[in-house]
Write a structure and sequence with these properties.
2 domains; Glucose Permease (Domain IIA); eight-stranded antiparallel sheet; alpha+beta; 13 strands; 10 helices
Length: 382
């Protein structure tokens, strides 16, 4: 199945989810609308990919493709979670009204089996017959309304279970599509022409700086010393975008700046919980100042969006780019670690109403003039 068809399959699966007031209150945004947006995004990305003549254009189109698949899979997970919650609510409602439903079905069955003439006669004679007819004319619409409500709920249960039964195939198509897009992206990054460079890193000076630095602050302050043949001129000012930058990765903030972790350690950056193999990209055009292992931060990339501003991203598994290169906004800088979950694990989480598998974490720190600042002053965090 092609990437476009795979994501359309996700959209089709979500289209089975009935939209009513109860379901609409369960989550925001609506997963079907999110899947439609992801499908549209994928369609544009695939069109750009078909028209791409250079590897650099392919990188941009494939980055959008991966993002679209991530959005689509997120919408699918949310749709399954909503379907599970709605089904559980319907099951509880029907269970609590079991006796009432049994009586209603008994009355409807009796009315359906009784001969029409017998229904119109009463032992008390014409007066009793008239009175019973009046009572029946009042009761019948209410019985019909209750029966119609019951039929609607049973039909909704059927549709929800049909959606859950078909989820495995649609999820498998989506996961296959995003895996293929990631592999194609990695190859396109390797094949693209060299990006513009602002400087060349001196490997000896870099090694000395790494060995002597005891803190991130000490390392960041020495970054300028490892650059050779750095071009003159300042980077574009992005201060007007302060508070509006998108996070480098799709995820949820797990810890805010200054909050202690399980070991009691407090850091000035934020920790974002992401899904395995999630794509990480630049929120703005930036120069790669450093990437590699650093202190206890793991695999680190340090970006310079503007003069005096550093963006530290730690926790990547795969890293794209070379030190000194200038990356356009939205460029991929790497992938998170871990492995995509099995279909059964996703369905199990959805069955439990959890719908989350964000097992990887990305640390993000922002430094202005080598002083840490709260990343939330720069990033738009919902």
């Amino acid at each position: 199945m092609t990437p476009r068809a795979a994501l359309f399959a996700l959209l089709f699966g979500l289209g089975l989810l009935p939209v009513d007031e109860g379901a609409a209150q369960l989550a925001d945004p609506d997963p079907a609308a999110a899947a439609q947006a992801a499908a549209d995004r994928l369609d544009r990305a695939m069109t750009a990919l078909d028209q791409a003549e250079k590897a650099r254009d392919r990188v941009k189109a494939l980055t959008e493709t991966v993002r679209a698949f991530e959005d689509g899979l997120q919408a699918m997970r949310e749709g399954l979670r909503q379907a599970t919650i709605r089904e559980q609510a319907l099951s509880r409602d029907l269970a609590t009204r079991e006796n009432e439903i049994a009586q209603l079905l008994g009355v409807l069955q009796t009315l359906g089996q009784a001969p029409a003439p017998a229904l119109l006669l009463h032992p008390a004679g014409p007066t009793g017959t008239a009175r019973s007819g009046m009572i029946m004319s009042d009761v019948t619409p209410a019985l019909n309304a209750r029966a119609e409500t019951l039929r609607d709920k049973l039909e909704e249960m059927r549709v929800l279970r049909e959606l859950q039964a078909d989820a495995a195939a649609t999820l498998e198509d989506g996961l296959t599509g995003v895996q293929e897009a990631r592999a194609a992206l990695s190859q396109a990054v390797a094949d693209r022409d060299p990006l513009p460079r602002r400087f060349t890193a001196d490997p000896i000076r870099t090694a000395l700086l790494i060995s002597s630095a005891e803190t991130l602050e000490g390392f960041a302050s020495g970054l300028a010393d490892i650059a050779v043949d750095e071009s003159e001129g300042s980077l574009p000012d992005i201060s007007h975008r302060k508070g509006e930058l998108s996070l480098p990765v799709q995820g949820r903030v797990l810890r805010r700046a200054g909050e202690a972790d399980a070991a009691g350690i407090r850091r000035p950056g934020i920790v974002v919980a992401t899904r395995p193999r999630a794509l990480v990209s630049t929120p703005a055009a930036a120069t790669i100042r450093y990437h590699g292992q650093l202190l206890d931060y793991g695999n680190v990339m340090i970006l310079e969006p503007q003069s005096g501003l550093l963006l530290v991203v730690a926790g990547l598994d795969v890293v794209y780019g070379d030190v000194g290169q200038v990356l356009p906004a939205g460029s991929p800088i790497g992938l998170m670690g871990g492995t995509d979950p099995e279909i059964g694990a996703i369905l199990q989480q959805s069955a439990e109403g959890a719908g989350t598998d964000r097992s990887e974490t990305l640390y993000i720190e922002v430094r202005e003039d080598n002083e840490p600042v709260d990343p939330e002053t720069w990033f738009r965090i919902r």
